[in-house]
Amino acid sequence: TRFDRQFLPFLDVLSALLPPALFIMLVMAWWRPRTSTRTALWAWLAGAVVALVFKLQGQLLHMPLGALVSIGVLLFGSYVNKDWRLKIGD
């Protein structure tokens, strides 16, 4: 067996996991209200799981769906964290 044929499944999975991380990095660099790295990690994990599940099912929209889920979780987590900090400070 050739090395490149054994390497293709790894690259296939990696292609599903990286787009949500890229979108998280772009949004975090662009968006001024900083969120915690924990929120960004959970957002990436949620998007990566969604993208991987759709990739394994053979769906063609696995990358944009994973990115949308990541951005949605990031925005929701940022909103929840902001409200939580306000309640703690009162």
Q: What's the β-strand tally?
A: 0
**Major beta sheet, specifics?**
none
Shape: elongated
How many individual helices?
A: 3
| Termini gap | 64 Å
Give the rounded overall mean pLDDT. Answer: 85
Percent helix, as a range, is over 70%
What are the secondary-structure elements, in order, as H or E? HHH
How many structural domains in the coordinates? 1
Stretches where pLDDT is under 50 for at least 5 consecutive residues are none
**Gyration radius, to the nearest Å?**
16 Å
By helix and strand content, what is the structural category?
Answer: mainly alpha
Proportion of beta-strand residues = under 5%
Concise synopsis of the structure shown:
By secondary structure, this protein is an all-alpha fold. It has three helices and no strands. Helix 1 (3-30) packs across helix 2, helix 1 (3-30) packs across helix 3 and helix 2 packs antiparallel against helix 3 (62-89).
